[in-house]
Amino acid sequence: MWIVRLRGKYLVWAITACCCQGFLLLGYDQGVMSGIIGANNQFGADFGHPDPTTQGTIVALYDIGCAVGSLITFIWGESVGRKRMIMAGASTMLVGTAILTSSTTLAQLYVGRIVTGIGNGFNSSSIPVYQSETCGGMIRGTLVCLNSTVTIIGLVIAYWLDYGMSYVSGPAQWRLPIGFQAVFALCLLLQVLVLPDSPRWCMAHGRVEEGVRILAQLEDRDSPDHPDVVAKRKEIEVSLAQESAGGPFRYRELLQGGPLGNFRRICLCVGVNVMQQFTGSNMINYLAPVVYQNTMGLSRNLSLILGGFTSVTYMFASFIPLWTVDRYGRRVLLMTSATGLSVCFIIASILLSIGTKGAAYGATAMVFIFQIFLGIGYLPIPWLYPAEITTTRIRARGSAISSFFNWMCVFAVVEMTPPAIANISWRVFIIFAIFNALWVPLVYIFFPETKGLELEDVDHIFEKGGITGGVWSSPGGRTVERRRVVRDVEETEGNKNSVEVRIEDEDGKGD
To answer: Exposed, middle or buried: residue 399 (CB in 10 Å: 0-12, 13-18, 19+)?
Structure first.
């Protein structure tokens, strides 16, 4: 297969553009149903005006599909590879979109949502790993955060296309917005076809020459024998050798403790994604018009407009981490974000308890500020952190299992939210305010800082041991120094030289 001949930063940006395309598709798919369901429109007429529970199911079945896709990636993603999983994801989403766009019954709509979700599960599990394994530690955070920013751009496109099409009569009112995602899926498929696979994956699966050639491309060097490429190759090989010391991979390794701490890594992958969903983010992002209409008593038209501007606010806020994530680190952004989210929901609850129109507008303002705090921390970090905190040997599985829990939690939140709003109205904000307050100490105590670390450095991140893996006793949660892997390479080279000297001595004695 022909591979694009770009090198260095241009290749990194081409890979980033591909990954952003995948997240643009993810964001669009997340937001497209919010402006269609829950209204007296053509979609409602075509599907028998679904009640709140059915609305929740239509939205949430997509998340079940995403979870299934993540589970498939967990089992087969490592053997298939990052690139081919993304290709499979784009292709599956094209099939799902065709089913959705041609739907005439609820059953067909359900199937289309699940199939589309499976494809997105492939993408959401594989794209962060692919991005992380093809860029340097000093820019990794920025590039993965850019993926998250593009997710919200997709969300904004979906919201405003829904709103514009709401003035059109006939089935095109909902079929066009749903079918439009095929454009993004096709672009993703065409982009990833001509890009190289992850060099770390190639080297881990016996395709060493291909992996080194890709490393040379990424490092912008003419030859795989260039000192920079050789040094990077040694770092990856030493890291893979340490991780593979126990032989072929076994699933019980994911429960392994000790200095490597695989189980701790998996817990952090899952934990940061569970936290993200129980911030209340998807109560707003999936169901913003429903929230505005049913908890704040605003009109459907005004709720749709506010839902669109809420997503625009979220989009602008999502640009902030591009400048902060590699400057202040992951922990600071998570703790700042959780604090702000909790305060916003507390104030919104107080205002809505008053019950006046003015107080409802004040609560609306709090939702907008909530989106800003969400954009600076709990939007990007849960996509970035699992791919950083895991070793190469378990990275695909760690990212997939975190994605699985992410989508299952999305399913739970989105399934529960419409009935919860119908029964307890604004009091749902109180529940999420409490969750957000809990996330601050959890991050401070258990989450190590990964800012600036190469992926091979992360092998040593829990060597200090203890209940918190050394996080509590380390300033800023930084448990390992940058470029720690260089010491591993030096020790390996030293041991090799010692063995060679010993062999020479023995040969001399034999003579």
So the answer is: buried
CA distances from 113 to 52, 92, 307 (A): 17, 11, 22
**Residue of 235, 190, 234 lying closest to 482 (CA atoms):** 235
Share of the chain above pLDDT 90, in %: 50
Other Cβ atoms within 10 Å of 13 Cβ, number: 14
Averaged pLDDT of the chain: 87
Query: Around Cβ 302, how many Cβ atoms within 10 Å?
Result: 14
pLDDT at 310: 79
- Using alpha carbons, select from 332, 268, 325 the residue that is nearest to residue 461: 268
Answer for the pair 47, 106: CB distance below 8 angstroms, yes or no.
yes
27 near 151, Cβ under 8 Å? yes
Nearest residue to 55 (alpha-carbon basis) of 450, 337, 455, 420: 420
The pTM of this model reads: 0.86
Residue 368 exposed, middle or buried by CB count within 10 Å (0-12, 13-18, 19+): middle
pLDDT for 163 beyond 90: no
Report the pLDDT value the prediction gives residue 107, as an integer from 0 to 100: 93
H or E stretch including 27? helix 8-31
Is residue 273 within 8 Å of 402, Cβ to Cβ? Answer: yes
Greater confidence (86 vs 493) lies with 86
